[in-house]
Amino acid sequence: MTADAQQSAEARSAREIAIDRMATWRQLATAAVIVGACVLPLLVSDYRNFQFTQVIIYAIALMGLNILMGINGQISLGHGAFYAIGAYTAAIMMTHWGVSPYLTIPVAGALAFLFGFLFGIPALRLHGLYLALATLALALALPQLLRFDAFEDWTGGVQGIFIDKPVVPFGLSLSQDQWLYYVCLAIVLVLYWAALNLVRGRVGRALMAIRDHHIAAESMGIDTARFKSLAFGVSALYTGIAGALSALVVNFASPDSFNVLLSIALLVGVVVGGLGSIGGAVFGGLFIVFVPNLSQSISDAAPWVIYGLFLIVLMFVMPNGVAGFLAWAASRLAGRGERS
What CA–CA distance (Å, rounded) separates 316 from 321? Predict the structure, then answer.
């Protein structure tokens, strides 16, 4: 073996070792986060527990929106509508039909998937800003439909629907907020695993190929129309499940809770967490829940100014989102270890 070949083999070996080391650290960090999340509700107040439950719920919605935007490259400003569909599905099934709250969650996801898939079919003709405006129209229209007098017997009109929180089963010594936190945590872990497998599998590769160059994807035999509609449906499914969980946790659903600001907040959460990063949804959820409260505590007179400053600074410091910044920092550390 020549000296150049030996150096190349050593460099390859060092890179493989660095990659394996990063994978190991990523697995350890994931395990530590899961353990910390399991212990968290036992250490904080009910109010903080409620906030962290909201973080989990937003993270579910952000994972779905990231599949659409970060993985498939479609823009949506209307996912608050799918969030509302999930919330009202759960609320109506519980109050009018007496269905178990846990059974309403998959039904809400399935119904949101159907609406998302059907909406994705006519949206195939739209791209970029035109698609964004179409989804924005959806977010603006649905709250008005929920207030419509013809549907008031079902939706409660402007007053909304009040629902009871689920009772803690099996005689567990947990509060209702703690129990709902664990329910949401179990669901987000399952959905996170499903999203990772989707993105890393054949469907995920097809979605990314469409995002990067749809003409080349079509020439390779990928059915772009089917996959783009599927991305809309799966994204809406995640968001609908999040909406159903939100209704259970807040025990209330009203049209004012699902205005266009919710859709914008979800968009902000995806960008802050990191486009194309499924795990970044957690950071986006933390931003959505805690930064507005922090802004309010800093300035009662102009909280949105503080919120905007937070967002601007974050985008300057972390243009690829929090997950992108952490990945960059990890690669830098791995590079130093490789050189040493």
Answer: 10
Q: What is the DSSP letter of 318?
A: -
- Sign of the alpha-carbon dihedral angle for 21, 27, 28, 33: positive
252 forms beta bridges with 162
Which residues pair with residue 162 across a beta bridge? 252
Angle subtended at Cα 303 by Cα 302 and Cα 304, rounded to the nearest 5 degrees? 95
CA pair distance 287, 60, nearest whole angstrom: 14
A 10 A CB-CB count for 335 gives: 12
Radius of gyration of the chain (CA): 22
**253: helix, strand or coil:** strand
For the chain, domain boundaries: 44-258
Structure tokens at 39: 């212990």
Residue 102 reports pLDDT greater than 60:
yes
> pLDDT (tens digit, 9 = 90+) per residue, 226-236?
999 999 999 99
Model pLDDT for residues 320-333, shown as the tens digit of each residue: 999 888 888 877 76
Reported pTM: 0.92
Do the beta carbons of residue 235 and residue 228 sit within 8 Å? no
Structure tokens at 207: 């979605």
Contact in structure between 135 and 77 (CB atoms under 8 Å): yes
Distance CA 109, CA 99 (A): 15
Distance, in Å, from the CA atom of 295 to the CA atom of 249, rounded to the nearest integer, reads 24
